[in-house]
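User: What would this chain look like folded?
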Amino acid sequence: MTNHAEREKVTLPLLQLTDVSYTYGSYLALNQVSFELEPGELVVLAGRNGAGKTTLLRCVAGWNQITHGHVAFNGTSIYQVERAMRRNLILIPDTPPFYNDLTVMEHLQFIARVNQLADWHEPAQSLLKRFGLTINHGAMPAALSRGQRYKLALCMALLVDPQILLLDEPFGPLDPISAQQLWNDLWARREHGKTVLLSSHQSPLNVRPDRYLFMEGGDLVADGTPNDLKMALHAESDALDDLLRATIEHVERHDPVQEP
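Assistant: Here's the prediction, encoded as structure tokens.
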């Protein structure tokens, strides 16, 4: 028979943020942010420049030590499960770092060895082909464009296949074809039970995430499905730019965003 504690554990969210705050010196970059992510969700984090999106992603990934609050992965603090976090939660920043003396393929080989991935070569080749990097497999990172460097970081992360993938402004460096390809890949991950949280000012045309999280001035000011937020905000559409514009107008009027 399953006891009460075991039943509670089964229903815990995959990722849970509770009253997370972060300060840079005296500057409050995040102010008591709380939300949850479940397996198989694709969530877009949006807001104006300086809203706190990048800081939030870095705190979720454990790159920044939070000032206050709690971040839990499967019910356990991320600081207590660092080894599991490295494999199951990966953040790709807007400017990914690389080893200057390793080629594109050697980066994938390195990631495969670090994560003890078996039979990695064929999936790596497939990823390079999908993101148009096959011809660059022997190139050094310095020889790649900004978009190609971001694609290499994507290949490295997708090769590991983490439970949660965090992406900081992934569409900015990409051409429209690559951006649509990435969205398709992220949606496929979602359908296989994987979770994606990405920050973005833009997205490919005619696509919608499961949820939007809107931030302003370090606060999480709206959280909901595109349709629910459209109705709550009386927005023109459920597109990202219309919802973000409507959210900012509500915040500037000091109106709470309430779901219908």
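The two ends are 40 Å apart (CA to CA). If you want, I can go into more detail on any region.
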